[in-house]
Amino acid sequence: MAIRTLVWGENVHENKNEIVRSIYPNGMHACIADALASDPNISVSTTTLQEPDHGITAERLANTDVLVWWGHVAHREVKDEVVELICNAVWSGMGIIFLHSAHFSKPFKRLMGAPCNLTWREAGERERLWVTSRNHPITKGLPDYFELEHEEMYGEPFGVPEPLETVFVSWFQGGEVFRSGLTYKRGAGNVFYFRPGHETYPTYHDKNVQTVLVNAVNWAHNPLARIADPNDAPNVPTPKAPEKIVERGPSLHKPGEAGYR
Ligand code: ZN
User: Fold this and answer.
1) 172 C-alpha to center of ligand 1: Å?
2) pTM for this prediction
3) How far does residue 242's CA lie from ligand 1's centre (Å)?
């Protein structure tokens, strides 16, 4: 079965800024979705901030294998209840890919538990992305490095936890470097952060970037059944312990009692 992929676009710059609209006439999310649709193994749909509940319900997430997220100017408009649904879906096994300025999105910050801050400059610099994890599935079909002629600079230190793997490191014309492709596991869910994608440059039309997006969706997909309740914390009564034991010492809880939250 194809990987059911949902591309979430903030869809604000496209409607307010002529330059962004000229590069992405149908929205950035549509360009990203078109790139993913080139892989017959991916079935893609899109939704935007402006839809009711941003187009994200528990049912829709239950039928999504990988969620792709681009946001920037309207992070604060994303409802906290929706963020909670997304995080629970990730913990239960949904894959998620955060693009560019989504480093400050609510779901990314919640999943990272860190400031997720960085240095930045909008000067149309050349970005050179180096593959730092050889033969990682997300680098399939890529050269040792590739370049984007015009990008926004993001520089270290990037305020995120140490990743499982650093897949790409970027160098910028102005001299800064940045860990631009990072993998994480949160609960049962695979998480990938990918840096490029500033809205005033044609980054998502770039073939190498599109290759990364396709590879990342394939990598992030966890084919196992979702965990029904990733927050469940069951009390295992003494008689149900894998080995026979005798209770010792004082006890606060009654047998089988639910824990405090
Ligand atoms: Zn940007």
Assistant:
1) 14
2) 0.96
3) 53
